[in-house]
């Protein structure tokens, strides 16, 4: 093996490792379903009664087409919305309802703290660590999916 080949191998290795950002790394941890949508590793934050919580998860769309999240509900919350986090400027972060509830085909969308999340509002029960929250997601193609998310304080 001459010096040129070794240098090329190292360069290739560097490109591979530098490309594996958090987002692409999580895509490779999951095997997409043959069709439709699967939810992986859902979890929820603790919350007080009448307060709020957030649910995070990986949405695996195995279908070739983009799917749209058309409705969200939970027996534990009066109001459930898909939220996105945005930069309000001056170091302040805000969140608002996502106007693009789209999940591209053959890909994984990750909901995580500081990013996209399902917001539970008007909680009708206390969500303590170790409890579980049921969440119903309705997609235009994949239909209704019910997820049981364990409550924990850290991701
Ligand atoms: Cu939110």
Provide a brief overview of the structure.
The chain is α+β, with helices and mostly antiparallel strands and 155 residues long. The protein has helices at residues 3-19, 22-28, and strands at 37-44, 53-61, 67-73, 77-89, 92-97, 102-103, 107-111, 117-123, 132-139, 143-150.
Q: How would you explain this protein's 3D organization?
A:
By secondary structure, the protein is α+β, with helices and mostly antiparallel strands. It folds into two domains: 29 residues; 120 residues, PCu(A)C copper chaperone (Immunoglobulin-like), CATH 2.60.40. Helix content is 15%, strand content 47%. The strands form two sheets. Strands 1, 2, 4, 5, 7 and 8 form a six-stranded antiparallel sheet that branches. It has a four-stranded antiparallel sheet with strand order 6-3-9-10, with no helix packed on it. A hairpin with a 3-residue loop joins strand 9 and strand 10. Copper (II) ion binds next to strand 8.
